[in-house]
From TrEMBL:
SMART domains: GGDEF. It comes from Mesorhizobium huakuii. The chain crosses the membrane at residues 6-27, 34-53, 65-87, 94-113, 119-139, 146-170, 190-209. This is diguanylate cyclase. It catalyses: 2 GTP = 3',3'-c-di-GMP + 2 diphosphate. NCBIfam families: GGDEF. InterPro entries: Diguanylate_Cyclase, GGDEF_dom, Nucleotide_cyclase, Rev_trsase/Diguanyl_cyclase. Its EC number is 2.7.7.65. Keywords: Membrane, Nucleotidyltransferase, Transferase, Transmembrane, Transmembrane helix. One of its GO terms (molecular function) is diguanylate cyclase activity. Residues 244-377 form the GGDEF domain.
Length: 391
């Protein structure tokens, strides 16, 4: 059976291997900064284990203070990596209380109450690990099975540290003069090695999952405007039935080819980006915007009556008509035409609604452009606010 020193050395070896693996992954994918943060946290914990092992051989108050400080600091860094991965803001909420607890621990240890210092540190680590588990469970948006395992391992490790503190309090060991050695400490060493190894493996899984999500987002995003592209439209709505209160608006910038021919493609790109910015301005919950290709755009609207859909599309057209793009040939204002298609009571397909919106768009083009037409307005185009100088 392994003795306590062997367990500590096993923990240090396991942590070192994990950290090296994390650093190697970060070097191949520098954008995954949370992996680098995890690696730094593990390195700090390895330093703690080594110093703590040294402390078990030659007890020294200063060595005790440093080892306990590294334990809290290591788990603080790992907690920050979790916040980094999940996009949780305001890291001060974790940093300030942990630093305060480290200061309290150092004060008690300096006064000779090293047992109290251990208890404070174990309590701090318990809170940090519990926070990690809670954050992944509450804020995670990925595979819930992975997040459940992360939360379980963090919680299990937190319980093992809590038991170490409880045993010290139950025995009234406020002053130790040496490293604590009891059943809880030995259990904690085993659990910490197992949990940290598991969390390291799950970190790799989460990194892989995040890379897949980012790749999928890139393939569904138009690089010029930042809107979703046609693939994004199909991914989100191809299998979705469109009811009577769902609509698709197709927009086509008027005379856009002439804009490129006269003003140049860089100016044309600016016009496209301006229109995308206008769409974003009027976007809200239930409104998804897409660039289908070239000068064609679309928005999908949910919980929308025909009047409200027409009003929103017209506002977008009016707002775009006021946009001014400076060019060497003078200020440029462009216009846009729009067509609206609606779902049916029995649920229409995306292709059916797009076909209806496309027909309405061509009706708007035939009506003189710079207007929005919907199914009930096919015969009466309502012009949008005219541009001062149109392409």
């Amino acid at each position: 059976m392994l003795d306590f020193s062997s367990l500590l050395l096993a923990a240090a070896l396991s942590g070192t291997c994990l950290a090296v693996t994390m650093f190697a992954i970060w070097l191949t994918a520098p954008r995954a900064r949370f992996v680098l943060t995890v690696a730094c946290g593990i390195i700090v914990l390895v330093a703690h284990v080594i110093l703590f092992w040294r402390y078990t051989k030659e007890p020294d108050p200063l060595l005790c203070q440093i080892a306990l400080a590294l334990l809290s600091l290591g788990f603080l860094i790992i907690c920050l990596s979790a916040m980094q991965y999940l996009g949780v803001p305001d890291h001060r909420r974790a940093i300030v209380p942990t630093l305060a607890a480290m200061a309290v621990c150092a004060a008690f240890t300096f006064l000779g109450l090293d047992g109290v210092g251990f208890i404070v540190t174990y309590a701090t680590v318990t809170v940090l690990l519990s926070t990690i588990g809670a954050m992944f469970w509450v804020n995670g948006s990925h595979d819930r099975r992975i997040l459940l395992v992360v939360s379980f391992l963090s919680g299990t490790c937190a319980v093992s540290f809590a038991l170490c503190g409880v045993v010290l309090m139950a025995k009234g060991q406020w002053t130790l003069g040496a490293a604590p050695d009891n059943w809880a400490e030995r259990l904690n060493s085993v659990v910490a090695v197992a949990c940290m190894t598991g969390l390291g493996a799950l970190t790799l899984s989460l990194h892989h999952l995040q890379a897949q999500i980012e790749l999928k987002a890139e393939t569904m995003t138009d690089p010029l405007t930042g809107l979703m592209n046609r693939r994004g439209l199909m991914s989100l709505h191809a299998e979705r039935p469109f009811g009577p209160f769902m609509a698709v608006v197709m927009f086509d910038l008027d005379h856009f080819k002439r804009t490129n021919d006269i003003y140049g493609h860089p100016v044309g790109d600016q016009v496209l980006c301006r229109f995308a910015a206008v769409i974003r301005k009027y976007a809200r919950t239930g409104v998804d915007a897409f660039r289908l290709g070239g000068e064609e755009f679309a928005i999908v609207m949910s919980r929308m009556t025909e009047e409200r859909a027409h009003d929103l599309a017209s506002k977008i057209g009016v707002a775009f008509g006021t946009e001014i793009v400076p060019t060497p040939l003078g200020p440029l204002r462009s216009t846009v035409s729009g067509g609206i298609g609606f779902g049916g009571a029995d649920g229409s397909s995306l292709d059916e609604v797009l076909a209806e919106a496309d027909a309405a768009l061509y009706a708007a083009k035939r009506a003189g452009r710079n207007c929005v037409i919907s199914r009930k307005r096919m015969g009466k185009a309502e012009p949008v606010k005219p541009a001062l100088r149109s392409a």
